[in-house]
Every structure is written in C-alpha cells, then in structure tokens.
Write a structure and sequence with these properties.
This protein has 22 helices and 20 strands. The protein has 646 residues and is α+β, with helices and mostly antiparallel strands. Strand 15 and strand 16 form a beta hairpin. The radius of gyration is 29 Å and the shape is elongated.
Length: 646
C-alpha cells in the first residue's frame, strides 16, 4: 500500500484509466455488430463519409447535424479495408475515450479533498453500467468525458471569473456541443449560476457575449436556406416542432428525477444535499443547475418522442455526484437529521413513483443500461416495491457507516456493468443473426466488382439494409419495393414492377442496377452469386433490371404467419409452381390460380404435403403477370416454394 501511495498522481490516473479501458474493451469484444439502430449505423456512415470526402453525408446525401466529434472519431478506424479490424480498433479507442472522464473528475474533486478521495471519485465515475456504450458507436462515448470537462471548466470560471477561465469554459462548451447538441444545457446551467448572483453578471460579461455571438452564428448557419427556427436543433428538429402534453411532461420530468437518483447510486444525491460551506457552494449550485436543466430537457423530449426514460442522456451527471459523495465522506459525512430525512424521503418517493416494471423492458434497454439488471428480475419480484426498499436499506447503511459508501457503490456499479455488458453482447448476436446471418458479415464485397443496390421488401427487417451497408461498403444504393420503407432516414427510391418484371421509378424510367441484394422471396432475372441465412441473396442481374417471381406473405424460413401467400410470376409462361406445405395444426389451404379456385388441401398436424400447381399463363406468353395464392385457415409453412417454367 505504501508503494502505491508513493506513486505519482499521473501514474495512478493512467493505471485507473488503463484498467477501466481494458475491462470495457474486454466486454466490447463480445459485441458482434452494432446493436442500436439506426443511431450507430448513422454515425458510422457519417464518419466514413467525412474521412472519404471531407463532408458529413449519409450515403452521399446531405443530412441534418447529428454530431461532429463522434462521426470523426468513429470514421477513421471504420474506414479500414478490413471492417472487422476497424470495428475492433474503434472499440479499443472508445474504451479509452470514455475512461478519460476520470481525469477532469479527479482534477475537480482535488479542489476539495486529498488525492486518495479524488481518486475514489474518479473510480466511481468509471463504474456506471452506461459505460458499456464504449462498445457501441454512440455519441455517449465522447459526450461523457466532454460533459464533465465542460462542467469543470464552468465551475472554474464561476470560482475565478477572469477572461482566461471564461474562454476555457466557452471552448469546453463548444466541444461538448460538437459531440452532441444536448451539451447546450451546460451553457444554460452556467447562465443560471450567474443569474442566481447578480453581482456576477458584469464579471461574466465576456462569456455571455461569447454565448450570444456563437448562438447567432449557429442560427445563421442552420437557417441560411430559410425554414423553421427549429432547424437550429439539427437532427432533433422534430422536437422543436412537436406539441407536448403538460401532464405527460410533468410525469416524465418526475420519472427522470427518479432516474437521476437511481443512476447516481441514491446516496450521492443525499451527499450533495448534505454538503455545506463556502468552498462547495458554487459546486452545489452548478450541480443542481445541471441536474435541473438536464432532467427538464430529457423529460420533455421523452414524454413525446421516447415513451420511457432515457438514462443515456442523464448518466453524464454521475461524475459530479461521485465528487459530491467523495467530498461528503472525506469531510466526516455530516448528517443533519432534518436534511438527511427530507432528502431521503424525497428520493424514495421518486423511486416509488418510478414505474420499474414498465421501464425495465427490452424496448427500453438501449436507453437505460442501469435497468438491465432489473429486466432479468421482471416477473419474479415486484420491482416497483423491491427497488425503493433496497434503496432505503442502502441509505440506512451508508448513513450509519459512511466509510462503506464508496466501496458499496463501486461494487454495485461493477455488478451492473457486468450485467449490462453481457446483455448488450447477447442482443448484438441476435441482431447479427437477424440481419446479416451468423456466418461471414463481409461476404458481399468479395463477390462483386462494382456498387451494390439493396432492393428492400417488407418481409425483411429494415435494419438488414443498414447492417449490410455497414459491413460491406459497396452497398451504396437502396430501392424500396412498392414503398416498403427502410427506417432511419437512409436515402432510398421507390420502385415497382411492370407485368413483364421490369423495375421502374414512379415516372416510368428504368431503375439501374448491376449487383443487387434482395429477399429470398424475390427472385431476380440474372445469376445468384450467394446468400445468407438471414434470408436474402446477392444477384448479378441481367439488363434491364427485372423481377422473375415475388412471394408475398412468406418470410425467409418459408413461414406464412398471416395464413396467405401470393406467388406473383412476372413475364409469365406456362410452367409449374412447386413446394411443400406443412402446418403444426390441422389446416385447410385453398389454392387460387389467377383468381379462380384450383383445389383445396387439408393438412394434418406435422405431416408435409407436396404442392404442385400447373401455371396457366395469359397470352402473349412472357409479357403478363400471373398469381398463385395459398389461402389457409391459419398459419402454415411452405418452404422451397418455386416456379419452374417449361
């Protein structure tokens, strides 16, 4: 221990950051593919475009502002020829970046406590489950250290309002906004702290003028082509154009206050309230201002656009509350009964109001990593009661034995991080299997000698398009078949077939394509080069670009969950439709050929029956469409459904 305490501070910080980065990288290596869609895939594409062209474009098209720092950070390693190596290199880089939050946390805490306690605060800042974002291509990675850096710079400017400190604060706020526009709340908190003491206004005139100038320049740039003032919000423009229900806003602001209590570890909230003295007055004011503005901003947005809490937008407060906790314990853990009882009661009431059973759910997991350990307990315990009770016990223990507070919080953070890391890794494997298949992810580019078009149909998951393009840079164009929308803002053009199968745009012009990815339910005219178990194949198409057959209502495994399959044969000629019918339950399947009933097949449970339907082609042969429909009394399967012309 003496050898450890004798080490220089920078060596201890490097060791702490290195340990954190190594553990975060170890967890990230189990992540097989981007999980949060389309966010990760957008940042990846923007970053690659920046390093390729110098512009933040999405598949060659201009887009609204998402972030500058995060795409630039992600784009360089992801531009390597070997996408897997680039992906792993990025995860290593991000593990380091997110762990760098320890540096400003330590330096800020060092203003109040000795080196050991400041290192304890830095350690607390590195254990939240949300740091599992280090394995994902998200703005949270750079936003975390940038936010605490900006908050620390603002505190320094408030404590010593000289032009130099104000300039550093302004620069740090610009940096955090360049990572994510949400960083403007730091400026709001700075302004709030100034407004609470009017004597400070004159001394902070330079930075206030700087804020005004930067805001004016940003608005002028964003509105240079005209449009609604909400364009200044960049990719979040819709948030400024939405109407919000007051009742929903109040509820979600309350939920996010409870989320702050949960994410910070409960006791640090109490610690901040118990801090007293002129040396921490500015720190408390700034911490409360940052909390208030963040909770208000995230709560309002979530009430309309998310529908559950968004911890990913709040966990940046953890380092600040970690400092408060370390300062409280180091100063002897003052426990004024009235304050401790009041704040404890409010914290527990917020947790009682928080709907854990509702929000500890799969759909909320990408935004709430601290709820992931609780997700596994849903159904076995009453989370709405158990979590507040556990929080009450934690408060009681830490008030009775303050010295165990930081070790307890470290253990809770580590356990939560392990749970979140395993969950994210598992879900990424699910996404991989669903979208690119469990085999080779970079299988497309080696098979082609030019750009690839993805012909998207509704039987595929929309994320399949994004994932294919992420792992295979030759996938550059997206056509949606008869309006089957790919979500996430990816540039796409709608195409549809004439009866002879030729694919055209809305104006009737032919859709160009050479190499095409399409669902296995869509057979193209050309040569099939390969496929994936995710249910789509790569074709080298003949010109003009044409569809041969399209099976509607059946998925890549041959299942017809809706109980109806329509096989559309383009440029129809006499032939036969073949396949196998099978059902887990007794089913009656009616076969309809070109609008008229052909026959009926009664399926026994689990007994496959051969399907063979002669195709009566309309004249002139090879120019018209014919349809064979299978209409069941319930769901059934029809694997290997195919059309064979004579």
């Amino acid at each position: 221990m003496r050898r450890l305490t004798a080490l220089p501070t920078w060596q201890l910080l490097v060791a702490l950051i290195g340990l954190s980065a190594a553990l975060r990288l170890w967890a990230a290596e189990a992540i097989q593919t981007p999980w949060i869609a389309p966010d990760e895939l957008i940042y990846a594409e923007l970053g690659r475009a920046f390093w390729r062209t110098g512009h933040l474009t999405l598949f060659g098209e201009p887009t609204r502002f998402f972030s500058f720092v995060s795409p630039v950070l992600a784009g360089l390693p992801l531009s390597l020829d070997d996408r897997e190596d680039g992906y792993r290199l990025l995860q290593a880089l991000q593990a380091i970046v997110v762990s760098l939050a320890a540096v400003p946390t330590y330096l800020w805490a060092r203003a109040f406590v000795t080196r050991g306690w400041a290192l304890a605060a830095a350690a607390l800042a590195l254990v939240p489950p949300s740091l599992a974002y280090a394995g994902l291509i998200m703005t949270e990675v750079a936003f975390y250290p940038a936010f605490v850096l900006a908050a620390w710079a603002v505190w320094r400017a408030l404590e010593r309002p000289v032009p130099r400190e104000q300039a550093w604060a302004l620069a740090a706020i610009v940096l955090v906004c360049a990572v994510r526009l949400q960083g403007f709340v730091v400026a709001l908190a700075y302004g709030t702290a100034i407004a609470l003491d009017w004597k400070r206004v004159r001394r902070h005139a330079p930075v206030l003028a700087g804020f005004a100038l930067l805001a004016l320049l940003w608005a002028a740039w964003q509105l240079r082509h005209g449009g609604h003032v909400s364009k200044v919000l960049g990719a979040y423009q819709a948030a400024g154009e939405s109407h919000y229900d007051l009742g929903d806003v109040v509820r979600f602001v309350g939920y996010h206050l409870g989320d702050v209590v949960l994410v910070t570890g409960v006791v640090p909230v109490l610690a901040l309230a118990l801090l007293r003295g002129p040396d921490v007055r500015t720190f408390r004011t700034l911490a409360l201002a940052l909390t208030g503005w963040l909770v208000l901003q995230v709560g309002v947005f979530a009430s309309r656009h998310i529908g559950h809490t968004s911890e990913r937008n709040l966990f940046v407060l953890v380092p600040i509350y970690a400092i408060a906790c370390a300062v409280w314990v180091a100063s002897g853990a003052p426990r004024r009964r009235e304050v401790a009882a009041g704040v404890s009661a409010v914290s527990l009431l917020l947790l009682l109001w928080f709907p854990f059973e509702r929000f500890a759910a799969l759909e909320a997991a990408p935004s709430n990593f601290s709820l992931i350990p609780l997700y596994k307990l849903t159904g076995s315990v009453d989370l709405d009661l158990v979590v507040p009770l556990a929080a009450a016990v934690l408060i009681a223990v830490c008030l009775s034995l303050p010295r165990v507070t930081i070790p307890l919080l470290l253990v809770l953070g580590i356990v939560g991080s392990i749970s979140a890391g395993r969950f994210v890794a598992h879900e990424s494997r699910v996404v991989r299997d669903l979208t690119v298949g469990p085999d080779e992810k970079e299988w497309i580019d080696p098979l082609v000698q030019g750009p690839v078009t993805f012909l998207y149909s509704a039987d595929l998951h929309w994320e399949t398009v994004w994932q294919s393009a992420f792992w295979n840079p030759r996938v550059r164009t997206v056509y949606d078949l008869l309006g089957a929308e790919v979500l996430g803002g990816i540039p796409q053009q709608s195409v549809g077939p004439f009866e002879e199968g030729r694919l055209v745009f809305h104006d009737g012009s032919e859709a160009p394509a050479g190499y095409v990815l399409a669902s296995d339910g869509v057979q193209l005219v050309g040569r099939r080069l390969g496929g994936t178990r995710a249910g789509y194949s790569l074709w080298h198409v003949e010109q003009p670009f044409r569809i041969a057959t399209w099976a509607v209502g059946v998925d890549s495994s041959g299942n017809a969950p809706g109980g109806q399959v329509d096989l559309q044969v383009y440029a129809c000629r006499p032939g036969v439709v073949e396949g196998v019918l099978v059902s887990a339950e007794a089913r009656a399947v009616e076969i309809v050929r070109s609008g008229a009933t052909y026959r009926r097949i009664d399926l026994a449970p689990g007994v496959p029956q051969e399907l063979r339907v002669p195709v009566k082609a309309p004249r002139p042969f090879g120019q018209r469409l014919c349809t064979i429909s299978l209409r069941g009394s319930g769901s059934f399967s029809v694997p290997q459904l195919r059309y064979e012309p004579r």
